[in-house]
Amino acid sequence: MFFVFMYYRGMRGRLLFTSVALVAAQHATSGCMFYSGTPVDHLKRANHVFVGRVLHAEGSLTLPGPVTFLVEEAFKGIDKGATITAGAGEPRCGGISFRESERYLLFLGPASAGQLPDASRLSGTIGIDEAPAVLRWLRGRNHPSWKVQILGVALGVDDVSFKRNARPLKGAKITIAGHGKRVTATSDSEGIYQIGGLPPGEYQFSGSYPGLDVVPGRVLIGECCVFRDISAWVDGHVGGTVRDAEGHPLADIRVELITAQTTGSPSPFRNSQTNSQGEFLFRGIPPGQYLLGVSVLNGPTNRQPYPRTTRPVTLSPRQELIGLDLRTPAPLAPRDIVVKVLAPDGRGAPDAAVYIQTVPGYTPSESVRTNGHGEARITWIQGAAFKCYAETRTATGPTTSSDWQETAAGDQPVQLTLQMELRKYQ
């Protein structure tokens, strides 16, 4: 199972698993509230929760304006038939381009003085076609017999674009196992499955549907409620062997399979590690065009110091492309970096976190801690430009951080000084 580190919004707006981890410090900017959560969290936070149809929308996604909704179904803090005006949110903060006559499930939090309540995605608002499982939960949560703890939608994925041919699956089998229990649910005509009666804890989940592949995984269940959509993929296969420049198999190498797009950045899709014979295999791959390779998005790292190596792959429905060879050039040479981190008063900052990542790229930040003198050392890869950032954040003390500092490619040792300042995070 590829657990969610970053998510890509597609497939009628649903959240899909991807395989790229972004482990970089996240900055809050003025006017944005960087919070997230489950529908349970959004319900607790919101003043008004309802299904609303757009009566009037001003502006656009780039220049959002007020939106007026007619309440068609009410769940909290408002009555059916009422009208309410909210803000669409800033584009950088999950703003939505609302369209007249379309329907949404809205979570509106308390408004700041002189401001409209927020109806952006960060508030929890989603289109009505994204919300069947959440609506099922909202409609039943106050019934004495409602004991559901995990629910979601089973979706069939027929195309790698995620935006076409995604359909709810009736009759998909979802099994949750752990803590001495094994429970199986079947998705209904809307693709919704729901399971209750499980004690809190971590469970294995698996799914099945004829002709499609569901990657098993794990789920952590609390008191209520976990929302987990299940994606069942057309079962195509892509496999092969990674070899070095001399033709020897390379074990424990990360292989990436990404969608090939003609515009914008390519979207990550799956990753796999080679076995002791250098072999890799991707299962459950829908048809489409891909790039297959090593260091495709992540770039070379200390653990995998190979230059970017790719080959195009076109997969037909249920095709098995096995036996593909990837040849990597010689590994890149290491590069020594010494970082000096200064606190706001100019003294060395002990135990500061230092993040280093490629420029440009999606490489997960390698992180180290400064010593008692505010210094940190790391080995980087020759030829890879990088940027560096430092931060201290504690539960009781003030938060300090530096700006990102970029350094050009080269093979010489590098010495950097990062000056931290007090930061206010919303």
Topology at a glance:
Blueprint: E1 8-10, E2 14-16, H1 39-45, E3 48-59, E4 64-76, E5 83-87, E6 103-108, E7 126-127, H2 132-140, E8 148-157, E9 167-168, E10 173-178, E11 181-186, E12 192-196, E13 201-208, E14 212-213, E15 217-221, E16 226-227, E17 230-234, E18 236-243, E19 254-259, E20 268-273, E21 279-285, E22 288-294, E23 309-315, E24 320-327, E25 334-342, E26 353-358, E27 366-369, E28 375-381, E29 386-392, E30 400-401, E31 405-407, E32 414-419, E33 421-422
Parallel strand pairs: 8-16, 8-17, 18-24, 25-32
Antiparallel strand pairs: 1-2, 3-4, 3-6, 4-5, 6-7, 8-9, 8-12, 10-11, 10-13, 13-15, 14-17, 18-21, 19-20, 19-22, 22-23, 25-28, 26-27, 26-29, 29-30, 29-31, 30-33
Describe this structure in words.
The structure is a single chain. This protein is mainly beta and 426 residues long. The chain has helices at 39-45, 132-140; strands at 8-10, 14-16, 48-59, 64-76, 83-87, 103-108, 126-127, 148-157, 167-168, 173-178, 181-186, 192-196, 201-208, 212-213, 217-221, 226-227, 230-234, 236-243, 254-259, 268-273, 279-285, 288-294, 309-315, 320-327, 334-342, 353-358, 366-369, 375-381, 386-392, 400-401, 405-407, 414-419, 421-422. Strands 8, 9, 12, 14, 16 and 17 form a six-stranded mixed sheet that branches.
